Amino acid sequence: MKNKYIKRYIYAVTYHLPAKIREDVEKELNGLILDMLERRCGSGEPSESDLKAVLLELGTPEQLAAKYSGDDRLSLISGMYFLVYKRVLSIVIPLAATGVFIGSAINILINEKFDDLSIFIPNLILSTIGGALGGAFQAFAIITFIFAVLERKKVVLNDGDILSSLPQVPKSTVRIKAYEPIMNMIWAILTVVILIGCPEVFGALFTDGGFTSPIGENFTGLIKNNNNWITAFDVKYIHSMWLLPVFWCICQIVREIFKLIDRCYTKRVAVVTAATNIMIGMFMFFFFTGRIMNPVFIEAINKKIPESSKEFILPMLSNANYIILGIALIVLIYDMGYTAYKAWQNAQESEI
Length: 352
Known about the structure:
Elements: H1 2-14, H2 19-41, H3 48-58, H4 61-69, H5 79-111, H6 117-153, H7 179-197, E1 203-207, E2 210-212, H8 219-225, E3 229-231, H9 235-240, H10 243-262, H11 267-288, H12 295-304, H13 307-318, H14 320-349
Antiparallel strand pairs: 1-2, 1-3
């Protein structure tokens, strides 16, 4: 019992610390706790109350981590508040900057002419970078204000039995690397921004000789000024149903935030993943089963492809929305099963 809770306590402390100092802190803290227990109990076996008293004397894992990291000094945001503050900043600021960056780039590519590259490229760079920095600064200001209020009001972030609230120490096979959920959130935002912001880019330029992709062409000229450019999706339908992609993007972000918080496959992560994936599936179902495909695009393809290919290609194009939906649902179901299996494996194989 003693070793189990000591290891859990040390894990909870080092979880908040930079990787380069974790090993040294583990050794130092383990020796310190054993010495404190020996002074308290002598040669006798420490009871649960003895261990609880020693750990309470040291402080919560967040408080002790703040001391080791040097973040316990008096400042606008300090101590355990600063530990949580840093983690939230590391998640929200990249997401805010990425979302604004992508949105700015898409807006310029779609709505501005870029025949004169000497003007267009500097404008693109300044607008996207400026927008990203502005989004990051706004996110920073809002989060800083919230945690400054928490600091001044002394809102308790961890108010429970110190032993029962200690996390289990997971094996490496069930731990989640921080970059994985962050990349998943960026991908979710990118997908929805493109789908809602510029669905026109999914299409082809139809000419007398056939049809071509837009690569290397002027998007603005093709989409807005060329009657031969035909979109694959019904743009009006997508714009009328924009809330559904936004909702499933929010669900994806919530799912990945829980992974970032727990940093391993836990029962909570499995439950959140199941709940959010079911909701994502529902939003996708209502979105993709509507009239998303552009019949004009399908008819244009029908006129250009040889007769021998129509029997195979046309059914795929006509049902492309259902194919996309099917692939997405398979991925969501796989993700739910994989997460549930890893959470079960974590419960069975945790080190302590």
